[in-house]
């Protein structure tokens, strides 16, 4: 069943990718109100959400950032139709979709796509692969031991943590798409997120980080491949981060 759902998700992602790359109309940039997740929704968010809902509704209840809860069924399918939509609307190439398929609260499949370059990451039992919406080849997700920089989502809202990271010599970028950053956790030095944690933003990404060192408490997430890096980052975050962001 997970293979079947994966293929449906990939088809949806391919359609969205082609639309953004070749048919991104001016009307897609317009905002249409506030979505269920609390953020303003653009028409491109609604467009992408509709494609996923139509394809995946037969498999269960859709829980989406824009529409909220839709339908019922065997699985809960948690969707962020456009992760990093502000980046997309600003023509900054770091945005995609994230989908987590759950049953009884356990994630069985996760899929995260990067529409800026066509990459996607998919994981279910016995399978964790990196693929491309541009071809059919898949390859294993591997650790990148040469990584020099990490990713710090919402760094702008956490100046004390930024200062502590600089003091300790940790380099980072803050690209602005949480699920996508978690998908790259095996390749970068680390990933930090400090802010309100919503299922749409993190369920798929956390599933893909399960084999890494992972701290997830009180609106703070730290992920790293190396124990010493992880311990140092958790210490900084626990000491310097304060309250909801």
Give a structural overview.
- With about 240 residues, the chain is an alpha+beta fold.
- It folds into two domains: about 140 residues, Fructose-1,6-Bisphosphatase, subunit A, domain 1 (Fructose-1,6-Bisphosphatase, Chain A, domain 1, 2-Layer Sandwich); about 90 residues, D-Maltodextrin-Binding Protein, domain 2 (3-Layer(aba) Sandwich), CATH 3.40.190.
- It has seven helices and 15 strands.
- The strands form three sheets. Strands 4-3-5-6-7-8-9-10 form an eight-stranded mixed beta sheet, with helices on both faces.
- Strand 3 and strand 4 form a beta hairpin.
- Helix 1 runs antiparallel to helix 2 and helix 4 packs antiparallel against helix 7.
- The protein starts with a helix and ends in a 5-residue tail after the last helix.
- The relative contact order is 0.12.
- The mean pLDDT is about 95.
Taking the alpha carbons of the first and last residues, their distance comes to 38 Å
Please, how many domains? 2
Low-confidence stretches: none
What's the number of helices? 7
The ordered string of helix (H) and strand (E) elements is: HEEHEEEHEEEEEEHEHEHEEH
Q: How many E strands?
A: 15
């Amino acid at each position: 069943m997970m293979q079947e759902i994966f293929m449906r998700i990939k088809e949806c992602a391919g359609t969205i990718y082609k639309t953004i790359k070749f048919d991104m109309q001016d009307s897609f940039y317009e905002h249409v109100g506030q979505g269920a997740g609390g953020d303003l929704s653009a028409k491109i968010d609604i467009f992408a959400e509709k494609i996923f809902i139509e394809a995946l509704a037969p498999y269960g209840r859709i829980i989406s950032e824009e529409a909220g809860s839709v339908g019922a069924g065997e699985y809960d399918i948690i969707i962020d139709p456009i992760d990093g939509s502000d980046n997309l609307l600003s023509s900054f190439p770091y945005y995609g979709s994230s989908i987590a398929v759950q049953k009884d609260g356990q994630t069985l499949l996760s899929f995260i796509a990067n529409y800026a370059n066509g990459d996607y990451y998919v994981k279910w039992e016995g399978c964790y692969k990196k693929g491309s919406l541009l071809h059919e080849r898949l390859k294993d997700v591997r650790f990148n031991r040469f990584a020099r920089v990490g990713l710090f989502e919402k760094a702008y809202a956490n100046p004390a943590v930024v200062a502590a990271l600089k003091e300790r010599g940790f380099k980072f970028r803050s690209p602005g798409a949480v699920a996508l950053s978690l998908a790259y956790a095996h390749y970068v030095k680390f990933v930090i997120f400090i802010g309100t944690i919503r299922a749409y933003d993190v369920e798929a990404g956390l599933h893909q980080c399960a084999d890494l060192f992972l701290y997830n408490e009180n609106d703070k997430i730290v992920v790293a491949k190396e124990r010493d890096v992880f311990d140092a980052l958790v210490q900084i975050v626990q000491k310097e981060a304060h309250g909801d962001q």
